[in-house]
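Ticket #4471: structure export looks truncated?
Reporter: QA, pipeline team
Priority: medium

Steps to reproduce: submit the single chain below to the structure queue and open the exported record.
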Amino acid sequence: AGSLIPIVADLTQLADQEAIKMAVAGRRIAGLVNNAGMLIKRPFMEWTVQDLAQLYAVNVIAPVSLVRTLLHELQGDPPAHVVNIGSMGGFQGSPKFPGLAGYSASKAALANWSESLAVELGSLGIRCNCLALGAVDTEMLREAFPGYSAPLSAEDMGRFVARFALEGHHFFNGKVLPVAISTP
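Actual output as written to the record:
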């Protein structure tokens, strides 16, 4: 059995990504869960280019960059599994909500990156999927939807994501999978 090494870092900083690589110390990574996320909620007419740049830096560029930083540690057999945590807001055809256009678009971009990375990295023994999460009781959901009561706890979803990270790549690769009992 392996071990889980949680590392807290600012993934928008390349130095922090390199610190993660150093913490791994050349060991093989069986699974990487990119759970970084940022929410900015405001009407479209109030959005700035800086807001969008910040959202994309955290929600898209940081996870993709981290995969690249850890590419050597992810390669091999059996295949490693990269799980990007998306959102139903970024899932094509799902309901969209006022004030969340930038967030939803950034999560849609991450979903597309997940599909693309599965193709790009498949020959290296790396599989990649995106879980488009629905309503989970987190601080971010409470900020986006004040007063809404989510049907799933963060702990319940965490258990599901952990199991998926270890086993999901045996069944899926390059998929964006909705994981939602409900969306607000």
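Status: closed, not a bug. The export was complete when the record was re-opened. Leaving a note from the reviewer for reference: Helices lie at 14-24, 49-69, 71-74, 101-121, 139-144, 154-167.
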